[in-house]
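To the wet lab folks,

You asked to see what we're planning to order before we commit. Fair enough. Below is the target structure as tokens, and below that is the sequence we designed to fit it. If anything looks off to you, flag it before the synthesis order goes out.
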């Protein structure tokens, strides 16, 4: 029995040693294989942070190696292919320059190059609260709320623009009440019709910006809010009721009496019997005529 157990143990040990040796041999064989060669090519990236509207030149661009098996759509291989074109969005250092981030050829530089055809850029001076405490930055999407007053409803707030893109947010020095103050100037990308709305709201009342998620493009069109409704009052004053006096009652004409021919003893008489007046409940009187 001891020899049988010994032979069985040796057999299992030999099998385990064989499997382990096969695994080690396989791993060494894989390690000895040459690494796959990754073909690289050059792509154009930003040499440093570049703001929206920058007119690109060779100093602001550089090339870096990029795997050829992982291409990006509309990328550039040479800096001269994208010079003298303006950025329509801000880019970070080493961020690839793509066709979708550039204004059309010969569009020029600056903010004007970032405005698509049919659109307008309109600026409005706001304070930090209206500008959502500094969180409104280029590329952000906002709603514009206007607060004013009307003769019919009093003070009212209404969302006049939705899902509007911010092109620029700058600071400028203005004199207010005899003191210099920093004023935030927000430039929005709007249609010509929306530009007229925004101008009217800025001049006739106050505007407020509401920051929204850049991927939330749904139009909500919320109803306007009246100041009176905030305090639980009626939204509009109750119109006065004009009571028209009733016309005076005119008594109706009495009904005609009944006339009956009565013949008694060769004598003929006409007797009149009064009819009952339904409106007063009184009779009209009685008359007799003899023939």
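Sequence we intend to order:
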């Amino acid at each position: 029995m001891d020899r049988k157990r010994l032979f069985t143990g040796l057999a299992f040990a030999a099998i385990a040693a064989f499997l382990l040796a096969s695994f080690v041999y396989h791993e060494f064989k894989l390690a000895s294989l040459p690494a796959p060669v990754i073909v690289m090519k050059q792509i154009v990236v930003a040499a440093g942070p570049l703001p929206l509207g920058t007119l690109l030149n060779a100093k602001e661009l550089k090339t870096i190696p990029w795997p050829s098996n992982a291409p990006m759509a509309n990328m550039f291989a040479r800096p001269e292919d994208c010079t003298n074109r303006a950025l329509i969005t801000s880019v970070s250092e080493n961020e690839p320059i793509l066709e979708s981030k550039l204004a059309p050829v010969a569009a020029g530089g600056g903010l004007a190059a970032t405005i698509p055809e049919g659109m307008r850029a309109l600026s409005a001076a706001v304070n930090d609260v209206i500008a959502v405490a500094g969180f409104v930055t280029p590329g952000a999407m906002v709603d514009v709320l206007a607060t004013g007053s009307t003769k019919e409803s009093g003070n009212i707030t209404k969302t006049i623009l939705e899902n509007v893109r911010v092109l620029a947010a700058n600071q400028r020095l203005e004199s207010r009440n005899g003191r210099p103050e920093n004023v935030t100037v927000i430039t929005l990308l709007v249609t010509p019709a929306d530009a007229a709305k925004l101008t009217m709201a800025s001049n006739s009342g106050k505007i407020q910006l509401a920051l929204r998620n850049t991927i939330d493009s749904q139009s909500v069109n919320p109803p306007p809010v009246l100041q009176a409704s905030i305090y639980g009052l009626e939204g509009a004053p109750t119109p006065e009721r004009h009571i028209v006096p009733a016309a005076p009652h005119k008594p109706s004409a009495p009904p005609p009496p009944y006339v009956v021919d009565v013949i008694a003893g060769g004598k003929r008489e006409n007797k009149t019997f009064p009819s009952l007046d339904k409106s007063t409940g009184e009779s009209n009187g009685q008359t007799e005529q003899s023939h």
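Structural context that might help your review: The longest strand covers residues 154-176. Residues 285-291 have pLDDT under 50 and may be disordered.

Thanks,
Computational group
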